[in-house]
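Lab meeting prep.
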Amino acid sequence: MRTRIILVVLLLGISTIPTSQAGAPERLDEVGAVFGGVQINATSSANITLEFSELPAIVEDYTATWCTNCVEVEHALDDVEETNHMQQYHFHRFISENEDPLGSQEGDERWIERYEQRIPPTVIFNGTIQQVGSVPASDSLQDDYNANLQNYLDIGSGFSSLGWIPDEGNMSGVVAWNLNVDMSNFPANSTIKSSIWVVEDLAYFPDGSNGENYYHESVRAIIELGENQTGTMEITLPSAYDDNDLEIHLIHEVILPKVIDAEEEDNSEDSVEEEDSDEDGVLPSIGLLPVLALTMFAAIIVQRKQQ
């Protein structure tokens, strides 16, 4: 009997732990699209404009240098890139990270704010479709990713422009951007936030435990430009992990209006009233593991008393 109780408690604990091994494609309805991808080498002055029809699909990959199943995901992405117009962005784990040197604080904060998780490997297509893990939902990851890329963004016509003038030493410079877009193609009250993603084209890091030595297109920093569709800004670039191969990429993210339904609003008001009336009687929350431990301990005590 005691063994059964312990097994039940352990199963309850395990069931709450997220897995990074498998996951079917999931549509993200609560966040807006991600588009853009105009890029310039950070060592060169340039001004580039692309029509929306010329922009690549934006593929974000959350990864780590210790993540072995991330390697399979990234090889599959390389395969589908051969037949699709897409741009990969690899976000390496940074917060509480001891091994991987290629991530950034702002990169992790963005993933937490936008996607509410940091599970490697996770791949996001155009900001609208998420697929977690390395086990395919169909015959192969390549088939999954090709299907995900067929969900084209309907953002109308327009263009995205990026200009860049580096200072001497290439560690800072002036960036100029211009977004021509018809907001009627997006949900009412949406806004668009632009940013510069600083990307390291290739980094050599043989000390990871996933067996890889070279890492491509790592996002080393995110520099917010705000919601102005046109502007200039002086920015400072991070140091490259090695060599001198940083790029600046112009990315646009659709910010959807926050929707609060009537039931949620009523519950929020009720919660505030309860907090006001019972402020002195509120108990602090405790974590899952202490609860499971207490449950198991209590069950064993009851069993002993029954014997």
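Slide two material, second protein:
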Amino acid sequence: MINICLVCEEPANGKHFGAITCRACAAFFRRVAPKPQAIRPCKFKNRCKLFKKGCFTCKFCRLQKCFKVGMSMEAFQFDRDAYKVREMVQLDRRIPMTLDTFTGNSNLIIFSSNSQDFPRSFIDLRFLIDQAHLVFQQGPSTPLYAENRLKKMSLGLVSPQNVPETSENTKFGQKEAVEQLESQILSVSKWLTHFDEFQKLPKSLQIKILEGTWSVWSRLENLSKTSRQIRHNFDENVLKRMKNDTVLIEFGSPEMDITWLSKYTVEELKFFLNIPTEIRLDPLLRSMINLNPSEVELSFMLSQLCFHYVGKRFQGEILNISEKFQEILADDLHDYYVNEMNKSNYGSRMAQMMRINNQIQKEVYKHREKMDLARIFEVFCVDVSHPDLFLL
């Protein structure tokens, strides 16, 4: 029996990969043979000589000699490394594919079959649009004077008609939903009448702008009310020490009747509907609390958010109008800071206000994606006379 390695002529250890070799050459062949492209070509035109103690001048010539003496990769056994075994074990232990992933439908809407004969509700909102027309026609309820248009709009925020009545009703159904919608839209309508340039627009454009702004206006206005409530109920130093996502206020869930809205339950619709049961100290609320805007600053934030959003949504003539409105109100804000607040450097507060507005717009875009899914899967079973009010 041959007891000399056929590759390096050192003492052999046995037959490895088809040839009598030592352990070193066997390990070299097992490591290098699967990827010979990683080895540099021989610098001496494949004429390297074997030195003492099995040393080669280059790996290329050593590999070629391995092949020459009969070593082959056919006996290689792959996927036996320890880390490969661990990966395969982890793969086998993974959680099986869920039903919603398998079917391609959200698990919120696959609990019952899609009944084609489910009754659809209809809500006639013509009375609400007629009221908005009347508000625009009558203008502010009382004559107001202010140094500029932005301050006049701020007076509209604190006017009594914009303060919603608190209700102790523990039930929430179609009637309460329509009343809430009416309150929000009329509040925006009355606030817009305090902007003289808006009052000069044709009635059709006024309604178009109202349709595109009432939802984002309500988001920021509710955020402002919540931040003021928190500042009133909590010490400022305590708020600073609180961590994000801390529960600040809890209130009971109302008894909700949504049979007029969808065939699914409240639990199944939580992905699509915002049903608040508590107030948490999220980053957006913290930013609003820290900013603590004045009525003039809040009026600018509301107008900038509304006109910027409606301009991007409708484009064309409304975009030109909204840009003009933003320029006018930005000049008024500059006058407010310089002449009344004696602040020539107000860039930091402007940056804070714009960050809040941008975050609200991001939330609106996320909600738009959810509503697109709801329309695709026919989650809601209600029709309205003016669907443009609910297009984001």
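Talking points for slide two:
The longest helix spans residues 203-233.
Confidence is low (pLDDT under 50) at residues 159-167.
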